């Protein structure tokens, strides 16, 4: 497994749990040292125990020597970063191609080179060209095996996935069969659980990941816009979401109003899919709109808080509960808190913030003036307004009476709808949330 980041570490550890010998290659010295010392450099519930058990069993190792890791390997997975390229939103595949060239130079026999990274359509073909050019004598095949891991639930997603996608070069039937047999063996524990395993072509597998994430992002954006409409017409978005979610054709997931989607996948993958569409001469206009609406959504949430403060936050102290883009992760990538807190800071507010896991990762990307607190009640201490940005479960159980004792003001902006409006308002608070007629801001 080339890459010991989120995808590589989770995937490699879970393969080891299946009984496979896995060597994870990580070239970042600090990350490698942490892994070798048993310190997990990412926040993912249960991963530390799984890593420890498989290291002790001898199935999982960490190193920076690609040649040693690749020697004798049946399959080599590439799980390096593919960040958005500045300017056009396309995925930067330079790290993938650099890793592939190194793999080709040291491979010592038939090898299946598998992209686990999320890569644009056509990447597999380019990988094959690079390998042929680097090592004309090498016997190899290319496969695409996109991951569908949700941060905070990644182990369960790997061990009990909805499906496994395996793309191979269907223009090379004999290679397809050899590559499929190796990957089928690797995923045998899931096959025995009757997990759907979809074998398809390279281009199709590469497009599936972008399509899935973009559809989910579009679903989030849809319910956010419906939430705004509910506020205008006096409808309740919770009831709308539940009712349409009971339709089997729609489903209930990803229908929760929010300040907008963030994280390592949805923003990057929606931009990449729009770039793929433009380059192919087939624009995906729904996703282009989704990206634009989501970007504006985060700004709208900042403006909503400012409006809640009667149009001016200068000199006010604002408490913030939750910073990460979602609960059960320390990931701050493109979190709504970045946009919202920047707007509040520029508006002259003093910010007190608490997040159960993300404060270390938040410091480099949030305004330097933010005060980081020890817990939720500490974040509420002396504030004029309390804002909920991430729906950590521990926030749901906060008693409004305790908040009232800590807070100076009596305003709560719940941008995740975690509290019952009547309960909060009965405790003497002025309360706004998203898309609920009993908790909307007067206009």
TrEMBL record:
Sample GO molecular function, one term: NAD binding
InterPro entries in the cross-refs: 6-PGluconate_DH-like_C_sf (IPR008927), NAD(P)-bd_dom_sf (IPR036291), UDP-Glc/GDP-Man (IPR017476), UDP-Glc/GDP-Man_DH_C (IPR014027), UDP-Glc/GDP-Man_DH_C_sf (IPR036220), UDP-Glc/GDP-Man_DH_dimer (IPR014026), UDP-Glc/GDP-Man_DH_N (IPR001732), UDPglc_DH_bac (IPR028357)
Superkingdom field: Bacteria
Endpoints of the signal sequence: none
All residue ranges annotated as the UDP-glucose/GDP-mannose dehydrogenase C-terminal domain in the record: 319-421
Pathway the protein takes part in: Nucleotide-sugar biosynthesis; UDP-alpha-D-glucuronate biosynthesis; UDP-alpha-D-glucuronate from UDP-alpha-D-glucose: step 1/1
Similarity comment: Belongs to the UDP-glucose/GDP-mannose dehydrogenase family.
Identification of the protein by name: UDP-glucose 6-dehydrogenase
UniProt organism field: Komagataeibacter diospyri
Gene symbol of the encoding locus: ugd
């Amino acid at each position: 497994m080339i890459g010991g980041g989120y995808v590589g570490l989770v995937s490699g550890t879970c393969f080891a749990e299946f009984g496979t010998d896995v060597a994870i290659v990580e070239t970042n010295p600090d990350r490698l040292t942490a892994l070798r010392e048993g310190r997990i450099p990412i926040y993912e519930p249960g991963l530390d125990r799984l890593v420890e058990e498989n290291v002790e069993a001898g199935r999982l190792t960490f190193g920076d020597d690609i040649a040693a890791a690749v020697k004798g390997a049946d399959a080599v997975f590439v799980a390096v970063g593919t960040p958005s390229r500045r300017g056009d939103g396309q995925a930067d595949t330079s790290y993938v191609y650099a890793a592939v060239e190194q793999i080709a130079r040291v491979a010592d026999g038939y090898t299946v080179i598998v992209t686990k990274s999320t890569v644009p359509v056509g990447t597999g073909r380019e990988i094959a060209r690079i390998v042929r050019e680097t090592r004309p004598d090498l016997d190899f095949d290319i496969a695409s095996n996109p991951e569908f891991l949700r941060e905070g639930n990644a182990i369960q997603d790997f061990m009990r996935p909805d499906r496994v996608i395996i793309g191979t070069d269907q223009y090379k039937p004999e290679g397809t069969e050899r590559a499929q047999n190796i990957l089928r063996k690797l995923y045998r524990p899931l096959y025995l659980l009757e997990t759907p395993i979809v074998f398809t072509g390279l281009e199709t597998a590469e497009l599936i990941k972008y399509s899935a994430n973009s559809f989910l992002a579009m679903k989030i954006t849809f319910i956010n816009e419906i939430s705004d409409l509910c506020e205008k017409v006096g409808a309740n978005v919770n009831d709308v979401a539940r009712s349409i979610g009971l339709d089997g054709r729609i489903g209930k997931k990803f229908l929760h109003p929010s300040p907008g989607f963030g994280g390592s996948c949805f923003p990057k993958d929606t931009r990449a899919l729009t770039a793929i569409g433009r380059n192919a001469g087939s624009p995906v206009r729904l996703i282009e709109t989704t990206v634009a609406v989501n970007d504006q959504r985060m700004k709208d949430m900042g403006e909503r808080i400012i409006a809640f403060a009667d149009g001016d936050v200068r000199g006010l102290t604002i408490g913030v509960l939750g910073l990460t883009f979602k609960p059960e992760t320390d990931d701050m990538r493109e979190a709504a808190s970045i946009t919202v807190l920047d707007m509040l800071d520029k508006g002259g507010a003093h910010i007190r913030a608490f997040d159960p896991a993300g404060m270390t990762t938040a410091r480099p990307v949030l305004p330097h003036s933010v005060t980081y607190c020890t817990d939720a009640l500490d974040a509420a201490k002396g504030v004029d307004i309390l804002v909920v940005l991430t729906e950590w479960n521990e926030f749901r159980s906060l008693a409004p009476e305790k908040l009232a004792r800590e807070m100076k003001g009596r305003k709560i902006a719940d941008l995740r709808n975690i509290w019952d409006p009547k309960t909060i308002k009965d405790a003497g608070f002025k309360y706004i949330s998203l898309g609920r007629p009993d908790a909307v801001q007067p206009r």
